[in-house]
Amino acid sequence: MEPILLYGFPSGSSMGLVAAFEHVGQPYRLCRVDMLTEMKNDTYARLNGRQETPVLITDEGRVLTETMAIAAWLEARDTTRRISFDRRSPEADRMHQLMAFVNTGFTAAFTPLWAAFEMETAKPETLAVLRDFGRASVALRHAQLEALIGDTPFLVGDRLTLADTTLIGVARWAEFHEAVDGNAYPRLAALRRRIEAESVVQYALAIEDGEKPAGSGACLGQVPLTDVIKRFAA
Ligand SMILES: N[C@@H](CCC(=O)N[C@@H](CS)C(=O)NCC(=O)O)C(=O)O
C-alpha cells in the first residue's frame, strides 16, 4: 500500500510534510483532519494518543506519529536525495540540527500564545501574562534562528530540504498571533519567501485550503479520516 499522511488544518505544521512528500515524488495518499472538530476525541486518540497531527500510516500499515519520526521515515526512502542528503554528510548533520531546533525550541515558543488563543474562560490578566511570555519567547527563538541562517538560499544549501519544510508550516504562526515584526528578521523573512515560492509548498498550501491542485501526480488521492481510523486505529 501507499503511505497515508494525515495532515491538520487550519494552519497545521504538517503542511510542510505535505510539501516534503510531494517533493520526494513517490506515491502517497493524504488524509485531511479538521483539528478544530475531528481530533479531540477517543476515536482519534486510537491513532495518536496525544490527539495531534501529523500522523503517518506507513506502507506497511503501521501508525507513526511525531513530525521528526515521519521526516526520518521519508528521509530513509528519499534515495535520490531530492529533499535530504547522504546521512553521513555535514549537510545532513546541519539539516538535522535545524530540524531539531525548529521542532523543539522554535515551535514550543508559540505554546503560551496557542494556550491564550484556545482558552474559553480566562481572566484578562492571565491572558496578558500568556501573551507577553509567548511574544517574548517567539522573539527570542526568531533571533536565534536568524543567527543560525547562513548565506545559502535555503536553510542547508541551494535547494529545498526537510529543514525548510519543517520550518514553513510553523513560521507562519508568527503572523497568526501577531507575535513579532517579521521585518526585524530579514534573513528569515527572505528565506520564508523563497520556501513559499517553491511549487511543492504552493501545492501543500492549496491542499490545506481544500483545493485540488494538479501536483506531480505522486499523490494518489485523499482517504477519509473515518476509513483510516477503521483500518488502522488500535
Ligand atoms: N510533537 C508533535 C507536535 C504536533 C503538534 O503540535 N501538532 C499540532 C498541529 S501543528 C496539533 O495537533 N495541535 C492540536 C492540539 O494539540 O490541540 C510533532 O512534532 O508532531
From TrEMBL:
Entry's CDD domains?
A: GST_N_Beta
Q: Which residues belong to any copy of the GST N-terminal domain?
A: 1-82
**Main enzyme class:** transferase
Identify the keywords attached in UniProt to this record, alphabetized.
Transferase
Q: Which superkingdom is the protein from?
A: Bacteria
Annotated GST C-terminal domain ranges read: 88-216
- What is the name of the protein in this document? Glutathione S-transferase
Organism of this sequence? Rhizobium herbae
